[in-house]
Design brief:
This protein has 245 residues and is an all-alpha fold. The protein has seven helices and no strands. It has one domain. The chain is 81% helix and 0% strand. α1 packs across α4, α1 packs parallel to α7 and α6 runs antiparallel to α7.
Length: 245
């Protein structure tokens, strides 16, 4: 089974920090204006963040579907393999019975084959014995052939199922490889997003903006340490003129 994947914590926290900054700078009555260049960069990061998150959601949905198929496939393989030994036992039993039947036929041929019976010489009992042996052998052969056909059908069904399951296993391998490729692509996009985020928040223009009245020292620190509520209150407090604590 493949485990579901989540967007990285760093990406999540970084995107939340940008959201908090946007809420303050774009809120009515904000004291500072964001340049169009920074606005565009933030908007691009937000859009890409949403797209990456959607990618993870879609990936997890497909991982769920993959796991359902994988679980069913494992059950089907187990069920089919459980038939192998009983079929093998039936084949062994048929082979043993075939040897017994061949022995009976050989005994019949030795005792009765090509023989002419003379009833007037008292050979009727011998004749009747040979007829009985012959009829019994024919009945056994007919029964054996019917069971042989049945077992052969079971073998064919087993092999057909095994071939289908092998093909399904290969399809699952391909599906898993595709899921892993998508995961790597998302991780690469996530890493690229973090680099863009770091470039933005470390750029002179953004630093000048967010350091106004202690945003970088107070609010950003809170957001980066996971106190998102505190970061929001901090930023809002700065614009409202309140104590950011």
């Amino acid at each position: 089974m493949k485990r579901a994947k989540k967007m990285g914590l760093v990406l999540t926290m970084a995107s939340v920090f940008i959201v908090v900054v946007l809420m303050v700078f774009f809120s009515p009555g904000a004291s500072f204006a964001i340049s169009s260049d920074i606005q565009n960069q933030i908007a691009a990061l937000e859009n890409e963040n949403d797209d990456i998150q959607k990618g993870y959601n879609d990936l997890n949905g497909d991982i769920g579907k993959y796991n359902i198929v994988e679980k069913q496939l494992e059950a089907d393989i187990s069920d089919n393999e459980a038939k192998r030994e009983p079929i093998s036992n039936k084949v062994s039993a048929l082979n043993s019975e075939k040897e017994s039947i061949n022995s009976d036929v050989a005994a019949y041929n030795a005792e009765c084959g090509g023989r002419t019976f003379y009833f007037d010489r008292g050979e009727r009992p011998a004749y009747e014995r040979c007829v009985s042996i012959k009829n019994s052998a024919e009945t056994r052969v007919q029964s054996w052939e019917a069971r042989h056909t049945q077992v052969q059908n079971e073998i064919d069904a087993f092999n057909e199922a095994a071939t289908g399951l092998k093909q399904k296993t290969e399809e699952q391998k391909t599906a898993l490889a595709n899921l892993n490729d998508r995961e790597k692509q998302l991780q690469a996009r996530e890493a690229a997003w973090i680099r863009k985020y770091n470039l933005l928040i470390n750029s002179p223009a953004f630093r000048q903006l967010v350091t106004a009245e202690g945003i970088a020292k107070e609010c950003k620190k809170m957001a980066e340490h996971g106190d998102l509520e505190g970061a929001h209150r901090c930023l809002q407090g700065i614009w409202d003129g309140a104590n950011p604590r």
